[in-house]
Amino acid sequence: MASQQTPNYNLNQWIKTDRILMDDFNADNQKIDAAIAGRLGPIEEIKSMTLSETAYSFSLDISDIDWSKWSIVFVEASYQISCNTSGNGSLRLELVDAHLATVAQGAMSLASSTRSTAMMLVLFPARNGGTPSLNLSFPDGQVYQSTLALQEATSISSSMALKGAKFLDGTTVRLRGIR
């Protein structure tokens, strides 16, 4: 058993003569988990869709999302792709407004031999969907700043600029967030 604790969360601290117990570690892990959840909250599913048929592009309606409830939002896209030609192109994932102006975006290079890939956008509404949006896109690590606010976004769309390429059923898009 630990003879000392940290000042803020009473986590166990041992000296050389203390007996180390698994129960102490488990108790510390529960305190850490509760403290992190209290600061950010758990990651919650906001909205998702899975394609049930082949498509050249797709979109997901997000006009009902209240961005003021979220600190951070993750847009995760898992793509299943078919291509009957050779060459290279690109893949885009965008949040767009009613006039198809880009609110947030990500893009990546795509080879015709690609059969599955993934992309993520990390959005920072900071519980205020009315400010101009900022996002990071992965895997390329690009930062995109828009003059438009997230509350103006009405849909998430994805498309490919690669002749003969299409999205297969099983392609998914998920929005998850931290309040």
What brief labels describe this structure?
single chain, 179 residues, mainly beta, 1 helix, 13 strands
Provide structural commentary:
By secondary structure, the protein is mainly beta. 11% of the residues lie in helices and 51% in strands. The protein contains 1 helix and 13 strands. The protein has one helix spanning 22-40, and strands at 4-5, 12-13, 43-50, 57-61, 72-83, 88-97, 102-111, 116-123, 132-138, 142-149, 153-161, 165-167, 172-178. Strands 3, 5, 8, 9, 10, 12 and 13 form a 7-stranded antiparallel β-sheet that branches. The longest helix is centred in the first third of the chain and has 19 residues, at 22-40.
Summarize the structure.
Helices cover 11% and strands 51% of the residues. By secondary structure, it is mainly beta.
For the secondary structure, the number of strands is: 13
Tally of helical runs: 1
Overall structural class, as computed from helix and strand content, comes to mainly beta
The helical percent reads: 10-25%
Question: How large, in whole angstroms, is the Cα Rg?
Answer: 22 Å
The low-confidence parts are: none
H-E string: EEHEEEEEEEEEEE
Strand content range? over 45%
